[in-house]
Amino acid sequence: MIKTNPIEIDREKGNFHYNTDYEFDAGVGLSEDVVRYISDVKSEDDWVKEFRLKALKTFEKKRLPTHWATKDLENIDFDIIRYYLSKGQMPSRTWEEVPDDIKKTFERLGIPEQERKFLAGVEAQFDSEAAYSRMKDDLTEKGVIFVGSTEGLKEYPEIFKKWFGKVIPTSDNKFSALNSAVFSGGSFIYVPPGVKLEQPLQAYFRINAENFGQFERTLIIADEGAEITYMEGCTAPKFETSTLHSAVVELVALKGAKIQYVTVQNWSNNVFNLVTKRAMAHEESEVRWIDCNIGSRLTMKYPGVILRGRKARGEVLSIALANDGQHQDTGAKMVHTADETTSNVIAKSVSIGEGRSTYRGLVQMPGHLKHCKNNTECDALLINSDSQTDTYPAITVQGEDHSVQHEASVSKVSAEQIFYMQQRGLSEADAMSLCVNGFVNDLIREFPMEYSVELKRLIDLEMEGSVG
């Protein structure tokens, strides 16, 4: 059983900036020279450099996914982004060794305190590279690996290379290709057979620089019968210019393994958050994506599971909250490729002011499979008359042995409900927050205790000024 304590999450908590001197700077814009610079700085093997250069060509050929009903992507200017910034240090193993300006950032965000309270290990990334990475000694003795992707490539190539780019091919989409060309940072985790982590591992991603792109690459492998909970948080200061975050996350759950991946996104509203996340679930394994998207200018994120082995199970539980000037374009993908596989998707969105939320779901069940099951529920709540919500489910089922159910609803906060609660002493804002928290409460309970209580507070903050 995971022992937990609440941590502090605040909408404005990440809105600060320290001036930082970087030892390594790839400059502005994207080219072969930039890709070679990143690879040379990291002293990578030739095969990694070739992988990056091939990915760059793929990125240049692929078009933006503008057919997905958002033209906001056209506002990204890839020629003014800085693709690599680093102070040049290897990840420190103690907080005392972290450079002072980075240490001040993470201390203000409360990362050291969180590690002491309830985490089995922490990795803290500052712009392009991890500044701190440490795991409890007893996990090291059990053979657990928790390092940055750069260290993983160098120190554990026989494990890393086997699955790297196998769950999410470079050509999957334009932004997975971009990540493959310039990736830096992220986590590499391997949990040996039968090892069950009682406490979560956490990564924290911090964007500090202006006109910057963060492209972490995460690979998590749970060997047969292993269990792991991994949590990630992220913030950035508010700049007048746009910031790009484009990560790739690959999960591999081998026979009987369990992976739970928890994300709480609290980006500032100048960030384009364009992420590709996918898992491969083998026989009798289970993968759960638990996702909360609050903040960013535009989020496009659709965690997926390829149900590769018999009796594998995949689940996506997501909450999206879109406020003024924000578009949360989120959803899930479930691809059944083995008999008796089960998938479950529960998504809830809240649109406030002129915010827009979109659900995109994909479920595939081929006709040659037997006894597969899927449940999809996507519910939307509109707070104001100018709020928007869209639902685009794509469910393809062949054969007669499968069980599929889909439910969707759109509702507005009832004036009668608000009036009723006001008559019992609540302000209009408190009544509105109570309605929203009630709408998402069943999903918030699925988050680890570290986040669930504070998520409710974060929702309350987002509701300020939404009435009237």
Structure description:
This protein has 11 helices and 24 strands. The chain is of the alpha/beta class and 468 residues long. Strands 5, 6, 8, 9, 11, 12, 14, 16, 17, 19, 21 and 23 form a 12-stranded mixed β-sheet that branches. A 10-stranded mixed β-sheet has the order 4-3-7-10-13-15-18-20-22-24. β3 (121-126) and β4 (129-135) form a beta hairpin. The chain starts with 23 loop residues before the first strand and ends in a 5-residue tail after the last helix. Mean pLDDT is 82; it is low at 1-18 and 109-120.
Structural class: alpha/beta
How many distinct folded domains?
Answer: 1
Instruction: List unreliable stretches of 5+ residues.
Output: 1-18, 109-120
User: Mind summarizing the main beta sheet?
Assistant: 12 strands, mixed
Computed Rg: 22 Å
**Proportion of helical residues:** 10-25%
Strand share of the residues? 35-45%
The pLDDT mean sits at 82
Output the number of helix runs. 11
Distance between the termini: 45 Å
What would you say about this model in short?
With 468 residues, this protein is α/β, with parallel strands linked by helices.
Label this structure with key terms:
alpha/beta; ten-stranded mixed sheet; 11 helices; 24% helix; 35% strand; globular
Task: Summarize the SSE layout with pairings.
Elements lengths: L23 E2 L6 H10 L4 H16 L23 E2 L13 H9 L2 H8 L2 E6 L2 E7 L1 H5 L3 E4 H7 L1 H7 L10 H9 L4 E5 L9 E6 L6 E2 L2 E6 L4 E9 L7 E3 L2 E6 L4 E8 L5 E11 L4 E9 L3 E4 L2 E4 L5 E10 L4 E10 L5 E10 L4 E10 L7 E10 L5 E10 L5 E10 L2 H8 L5 H17 L4 H15 L5
Parallel strand pairs: 3-7, 6-9, 7-10, 8-11, 9-12, 10-13, 11-14, 12-14, 13-15, 14-16, 14-17, 15-18, 16-19, 17-19, 18-20, 19-21, 20-22, 21-23, 22-24
Antiparallel strand pairs: 1-2, 3-4, 5-6
Helix pairs in contact: 1-2, 2-8, 9-10, 10-11
